[in-house]
Amino acid sequence: MAARPRSHKISIPNLYCKLDKRTGKIYWQYKHPVSGRFHSLGTDEVEAKKVASEANTIIAEQRTRQVLSVNDRLARMKGRRTDITVTEWIDKYIEIQNERLKHRELRPNSYRQKAKPVRLFREHCGMQYLKDISALDISE
After folding, report:
1. Which of 61, 62, 77, 83 is the most exposed place for a label (fewest CB within 10 A)?
2. How far apart are CA 57 and CA 39, in angstroms?
3. Tally of domains within the chain
4. Could you read off the pLDDT tens digit of each residue along the chain, which spans 140 residues?
């Protein structure tokens, strides 16, 4: 026999739904992958899925940064040259643009126009090393 169909198919990792038998409501919970603790997200399914996917993204970025920082420390200890990631480069770029905006070398509208492409570039290749970026990556 086939398994019975599920009414709440959850494709997001660490997101769980619980049925309260007293009221008949479905409550959503997020299980933190590091600590293992459950955090209540309420009864709104759409909002719970948004929060859980955002939390998973943030935790994945943190883990990637930790791995990269450990690799950088090891490379420094061994005397190798370390490369800069796209995220670090973008942070420096934004800092320079803020200084230019503050000293009125750059107009506010120009600053706002540059923000969206920079954000998209960070989302697309944020954790890659700058030397590994090709023209194809930028065009996408």
Report:
1. 77
2. 16
3. 1
4. 777 777 778 889 999 999 989 999 999 999 999 899 999 999 999 999 999 999 999 998 888 888 878 877 877 777 665 678 888 889 999 999 999 889 888 888 988 888 888 888 888 877 777 777 888 777 77
Q: Does 136 reside within a domain?
A: yes
Residue 40 tokens read as 């209540």
Cα 139 to Cα 30: distance, rounded to the nearest angstrom: 36
- Whether residue 131 contacts residue 83, with contact meaning beta carbons closer than 8 Å, is answered with yes
Residue 134 domain flag? yes
Distance CA 14, CA 16 (A): 6
Helix (H, G, I), strand (E, B), or coil: what is residue 46?
helix
Note whether residue 6 is domain-resident.
no
How many CA atoms are closer than 13 Å to the CA of 52, on its beta-carbon side? 25
